[in-house]
Amino acid sequence: MMAGQLTYMELFAGAGGLAEGFLRAGFIPVTHIEMDKYASLTTKTRLTYHYLKKENKLSVYRTYLKGQISRNELYSYLPENYPFMVIDEEIKKENLAILFEKIEENLMRLGLEKIKVIAGGPPCQAYSLVGRARDPYNMENDSRNYLYKLYAEFLKKFEPEVFVFENVPGLLSAGNGRLWEDVKKHFESTGYAVDYKILNAYDSGVLQNRKRVIVIGWRKELDFHYPEFKKNEEITNYKVRDILVDLPPLLFGEKIIYGNYTSEQNPYLKKYRLRSKEDFLTLHITRKINDRDREIYRMAIEMWEKHKKRLMYTDIPEKYRTHRNQKSFLDRFKVVAEDLPCAHTVVAHLAKDGHYYIHPDIKQLRSISVREAARLQSFPDNYYFEGPMTAKFRQIGNAVPPLLAEKIAREIKKVVL
């Protein structure tokens, strides 16, 4: 690799949804930092996929998905510099110097001089829970609210031409807007012009209503302005059923680690590259549920099928209720309706239970599988998530949809070329 090429680094990388977008846009990975061990393994496995694809050795990757070789055997096909691209450590003040040193070593190994783009989104749950603590932003005791300051330290150190900071819309309203003003001023003080928009992943081809704040900063000397992201108008031709129709029916607790589809890929899956001719089905895994919840699932599906109404908790017979709270979160049981243009937002709570993501087929009577959740987030079927089922769901719920990430990366590419 030569100096001067398109390079990126991802902070708070998670399962690599943002990275996938930059890789598709032709960027060269330098470093991904993620403290969760399973998410960092997922990112490493995905980097392995991209390397093997470039080397025309995807047959090796397929043997791994089939369980025929171990993860270590898969990684053994990587060149020596690749294993260092994923750093599974926490980003905190105490270890910034160590992280900086490792990143500089990666640049040297790759024969690169500079990181052109830094991307990432710190954990966002704190911004979604405004009002539960006692500081000016109502979140004094949650250190996650101040990770933007650490993010800024990477900007000071590596001076990328552009950065991308992704988060939930609650970032803008926390503390009556004071938190966002602090974030903006902090980034501007490091030498960047900063702007943001609330983007809906649906407009990028994701069959999900998922709104996110996308902050973009650029060196003040650059001739740049916030991109105009155009909506993919043809997305209105599709329904949620388009991501479900070719997957084998499963009952609760059943799983297909790898297997076959029930039909050919449809126009949506083909156009948005969620499935290719070479793919086979993986991680079609469902969670177990008890008899009480299955009966509630049945009620929720029937109410949607017959009346196009959502089941409220107060609609459930007393004998099936287990929660005392009957005033808020009344739609805690919700069907992923196949006849709608898009599903409701996929969140990390999916790791705890699937009540908010009930499969629409009453014959299956279960929550969505790992693969169905991944498709709702626009992850392609050849994207493999490491770890136990709960870790897979958490990674998917926290991720930036790759289709949205790719659209962002392609706009930024026009500036940093």
What do you see in this structure?
This protein has 417 residues and is an alpha/beta fold. It has 2 domains: 7-233 and 398-416, 3-Layer(aba) Sandwich (Rossmann fold); 235-385, DNA Methylase, Chain A, domain 2 (Alpha-Beta Complex). The protein contains 13 helices and 9 strands. The protein has helices at 17-24, 37-54, 58-65, 71-75, 96-110, 147-158, 170-173, 178-188, 267-271, 291-307, 370-376, 389-398, 402-416; strands spanning 7-11, 28-33, 86-87, 117-120, 162-167, 192-200, 211-219, 255-259, 281-285. It has a 7-stranded mixed sheet, sandwiched between helices. A two-stranded antiparallel sheet has the order 8-9. Helix 1 (17-24) packs across helix 13.
The helix tally amounts to 13
What is the distance, rounded to the nearest whole angstrom, between the alpha carbons of the first and last residues? 16 Å
Count of strand segments: 9
Q: What is the percent of helical residues?
A: 25-40%
Structural class: alpha/beta
How much beta, percentage-wise?
Answer: 5-15%
Which oligomeric form is depicted? single chain
| Cα radius of gyration in angstroms | 22 Å
CATH topology of the largest domain: Rossmann fold
Fourth-tier CATH superfamily name of the largest domain:
Vaccinia Virus protein VP39
Shape: globular
How would you write the strand order of the largest sheet?
3-2-1-4-5-7-6
Helix and strand sequence: EHEHHHEHEHEHHEEEHEHHHH
